[in-house]
Amino acid sequence: MAGPLTPQQISTFIRDGFVRLEAAFSRALAEECCQLLWVATGLDPNDRSGWTTPMIRLPHSGAEPFVRAATTPRLLAAFDQLVGRGRWHTPTDLGTFPVRFPSDEVPAQAGWHIDSSYPVGDVSYLNLWSRKRALLMLFFFTDVGLDDAPSRIYIGSHLDIPAVLLSAGPEGMSVHRLMGLIPRVHEREIALATGNAGDVYLCHPFLVHAASWPHRGQMPRFIAQPRLDPIAPLQLARAIGDYSPVEIAVRVGLGLYPEPILSAPSSPSRQSPTPRGRARHPVHRGS
Asked: What is the pLDDT of residues 25-47, one digit of tens each?
């Protein structure tokens, strides 16, 4: 399938659980979105005295610049490549916006987690077929360097999830319970989600990730963390075998594919596993 992602990047997505799509939308559009987000904060970008909290979360917005950022031809083609043509809903907003300010404090909600797919009462749930979530995405409206509180990602952690969810059946299980059942996930290598304004990280819906340590940069970090809504749940036993990369990764986690499906040439930035979940440098395999 033609699109912005190379075969190596798609293989990397299956293996690692994420890929960075560079320049998914323009820097000029990112700046336009930032202007709207600054207005929403009620703060002055030139007055640091108002930046008194490590993070605020801005509500959903369907403003036209955000919709444009979420629906560029480059991004929509990548959705086709990872989720499958005709298997996702066109985004109409970018969810909420976590804004991180320079601070020595760490936000309260900075722990490792998987984003939920659907609520059961007041509890966040997900199931093996990733009901209501086709992708997790990170949209960058500002440059995000090592000092700018980049999100942390457990590389390959999405492959640990399917075997645990299998026993839960269609009803699934709570995210809280799931996190306590994942074997050895905290031994996985960490990648730091750094990049430029206009980049988008496209992540498997089962990827384990977390907010970062204190923001030691100079300017606030503006990102969005929307989900891509699927047309239908994942199909893990397709008669004609046209599995999407998202579905292939789930099948790999269930042991339904041999190891060669994960092979991909290593980029120069590939590192050996880091003991006990410590990150040394950002990892941008397949970007």
From this structure: 999 999 999 999 999 999 999 99
Number of residues that make up the chain: 287
For residue 245, give the nearest of 53, 75, 15 by alpha carbon.
15
Edge-to-edge strands, sheet with 123-126:
118-120, 123-126, 173-174
- 29 vs 35: CA distance, rounded Å: 10
Q: 150 vs 54, 102, 222, CA distance in Å? A: 14, 12, 11
CA nearest 211: which of 152, 154, 283? 152
Which residues 6+ apart lie within 8 Å of 84 measured at CB? 242, 244, 247
Q: What is the pTM of this model?
A: 0.90
Residue 8 Cα distances to 13, 71, 248, angstroms: 9, 24, 15
Residue 273, pLDDT above cutoff 60 = no
Spatial distance between the Cα atoms of 60 and 129, rounded to a whole number of angstroms: 26
- Rounded to an integer, the average pLDDT of 189-213 is 96
SS3 content of the chain, % helix, strand, coil (to 5): 30, 20, 55
